[in-house]
Amino acid sequence: MSTTLSERLTQELNSLREGGLLIHPRVLERANRARTRVDGREVVNLASNNYLGFADHPALKAKAESYLREWGVGAGAVRTIAGTLSIHEALERQIADFKHTGSALVLHSGFTTNQGVLGALLREGDLVVSDELNHASIIDGLRLTKATKKVFKHADVDDLDRVLSENDSEGLKLVVTDGVFSMDGDVAPLDRLVAVARKHGAVTYVDDAHGSGVMGAQGRGTVHHFGFEYADDVIQVGTLSKAWGGVGGYAAGHGDLRQLLINRARPYLFSTAQAPATVGALSAALEEVQRDPGLMERLWDNTRYFKAELHTLGFDTMGSVTPITPVVFGEAPAAFEASRRLFGEGVFAVGLGFPTVPRGSARIRNIVTSEHTKDDLDHALQAYAKVGRALGIIGG
Ligand SMILES: *Cc1c(COP(=O)(O)O)cnc(C)c1O
């Protein structure tokens, strides 16, 4: 007898339930803002990736609306058939100019960008060396390739050097890293990673999902921050779904990269082009971050303030240096309990435990945005103090 669908669903859900891994997403009842309404409660929102408040920004909404009126709700086809609108190409030129790269291509999401670019670039016999904490979409993207895959210890340049010394290839060698790591909030040591990659003739591939709109002058990203934006041996990919407020992904770098991706990146070839309203919003996001320096200033002022106050209270933020601010609670049940209690105090921040993060470093991940007021952050800090003391994480 074969397994019925009911049996399969029940088995799988039970095993998740027994492992405490069953997910029940909270539901936002208003737009994703610094203060919003979640599951019936008014909260300070520290759970979003909405670094610059672009998810609900008037300038983005205005351009999205105008593109919607002029261009309609859908692109009507995949890019390679009849879905490439001039607004797609204009957005790509805007991204290449912003990133100072020879070319850029827009895809549907950061997730599909990694699948598309890694899949298009890598062949059997190539060597990929990937940071152990890289994002799931990189891991899945690499699974689609026949390249030889090796892992180096997180942000450990000596270990990367060792792996590249022990493994050679006649083909392309690619070092893959996140720019900013999403769970820890630390920054890849790109200056030293690129130097080691170059020593071995390898190209560096940076997924800057959490770095674009956050790091570098005017939010140009981690690669810009380290001064490699003009380098032809550094590929930048990322998302348009976090700081940029919409949804999408991009790949930027060498002048010929775009042309190859147009021909080989499977999500680009086989999935309908981005909707006009989204293209409008993203175009406005790139204009706005360059027009309004206050966005980045407020983001970083809020980041420094929130971290300093958490340290004063006695919390461990894992040495994070970006707006991603983890607070360590030890084991997963403690982090989940803390998240529940914070929610009761009107603070929305998500608990993360094994297997999302290593055992013993279960945490609540907070993301500070430019749109939080000092009152919002103080409200969150008071809640943290109360919950941290009640759970014995901090003294006092
Ligand atoms: C969030 C994230 C992605 C996925 O981006 P989406 O546009 O949301 O699909 C890819 N890579 C990294 C490093 C991320 O943090």
Features of the shown structure:
alpha/beta; Aspartate Aminotransferase, domain 1; Aspartate Aminotransferase, domain 2; 2 domains; 15 helices; binds pyridoxal-5'-phosphate; BioF/Kbl family PLP-dependent acyltransferase
Descriptive account of the structure:
A hairpin with a 2-residue loop joins strand 1 and strand 2 (41-45). The chain is an alpha/beta fold and 396 residues long. The strands form three sheets. The chain has a seven-stranded mixed sheet, with helices on both faces. The chain has a three-stranded mixed sheet with strand order 1-2-11. It has 15 helices and 13 strands. Helix 2 (58-71) runs antiparallel to helix 12. It is globular and about 60 Å long. It has two domains: 20-51 and 293-390, Aspartate Aminotransferase, domain 1 (Alpha-Beta Complex); 58-291, Aspartate Aminotransferase, domain 2 (3-Layer(aba) Sandwich), CATH 3.40.640.10. Residues 109-111, 135, 137, 178, 182, 207, 209-210, 239, 241, 249 line the site of pyridoxal-5'-phosphate. Pyridoxal-5'-phosphate binds next to helix 5. Residues 42-383 form the Aminotransferase class I/classII large domain. Belongs to the class-II pyridoxal-phosphate-dependent aminotransferase family. Keywords: Acyltransferase, Pyridoxal phosphate, Transferase. Homodimer.
